Amino acid sequence: MSNSRARPPNRSKADPRPPLPVPTQEVHFLAEDEHLDIVPNFSLQGLHLLGGTVRPRALPSPRVVSFARVPPRHTPPPSPNPPRPWWRAQYGPFRPQMRTSVPLWLAMLLKKQGKCSVVPPRWLDAATLRSVIEAERLEDVFQGLPHHYIEIATDLCKHAREDLEDWNALYDLVDTIRSVRHNKIQAGLRALDENALKGVKLTNLSAMEVSVIRPFMSNALDNFLEGTAGAE
Questions:
Q1: How confident is residue 202, by pLDDT bands cut at 50, 70 and 90?
Q2: What pTM, to 2 d.p., does this model score?
Q3: What's the CATH number of domain 121-232, 3.30.230.10, 3.30.1780.10, 3.30.565.60, 1.20.58.1020?
Q4: Which backbone phi and psi does 77 adopt, to 5 degrees?
């Protein structure tokens, strides 16, 4: 299995589409907490790790202060199986040929070690992606896709090719979706006017798409405000 980044085949040099951006460390790090299904080929009761997907601890209920005499309560003995601390994460148990859900980072780690196969997410399907492309081209709104669809597709096409049906075609379809959406974003930015100072609503943009336009939007609004202040 090659470790080189997957590239669509026979991409014309005259293709006006911008290249697929390499995920930044920050966005990719966040994407690694997205869960995928895997089918392990080993047995393990579970992995107890520090960190992982942190679930916030429930706030304690407010305590009522009373000066009335309260009889002492019986303190039960400590449980032999105390609850797992809120800052720990547990994945598993793992059983051969039994599907389980793990974060993307753990799925890729086990895949590289040959200890599992990855179950592709439902949206990473040729027919589904083609329908998304058609809808993106016909409608002004952005279609609902996973918040980290670019990073997930890139990792699976790079590290889990044998688990995908025609990974080259899937990569190209995802790249086409990204390109069509990128063009829509550019068209929307060109149409911005002074009303944009009140806020711009961008629904269904992915994390990577937001990170790409954030510097431009910040600089454009700063320049607009400086020009407005100078005119006054």
A1: confident
A2: 0.67
A3: 1.20.58.1020
A4: -65, 155
